[in-house]
UniProtKB/TrEMBL annotation:
<dbReference type="InterPro" id="IPR009910">
    <property type="entry name" value="DUF1450"/>
</dbReference>
<protein>
    <submittedName>
        <fullName>Uncharacterized protein</fullName>
    </submittedName>
</protein>
<dbReference type="Pfam" id="PF07293">
    <property type="entry name" value="DUF1450"/>
</dbReference>
Length: 78
């Protein structure tokens, strides 16, 4: 079972698209995009992704990518 990373399409448009593309290329991570994840306040203020249901936030796409990988490493599924 791979870690699941979920993105809001609005947040992708706000800058997290680069992170989405990097993670999508990783065969060990399942990446999904949704029309809305119902975190509108967070979505308008920062870049974020839900990693196994937990929010990971950052100011830049590069930082978000790093934080997602760090979260996955520190919080294994098993």
């Amino acid at each position: 079972m791979n870690p699941l990373v979920e993105f809001c399409v609005s947040n992708l448009a706000n800058g997290s698209q680069d992170t989405f593309e990097v993670l999508e290329m990783d065969p060990n991570i399942d990446v999904l995009e949704y029309g809305c994840l119902s975190y509108c306040t967070k979505c308008s203020n920062s870049l974020y992704a839900l990693v196994n249901g937990e929010m990971v936030e950052a100011e830049t796409p590069e930082e978000l990518t790093k934080k997602v990988y760090q979260f996955i490493e520190e919080n294994p599924l098993f």
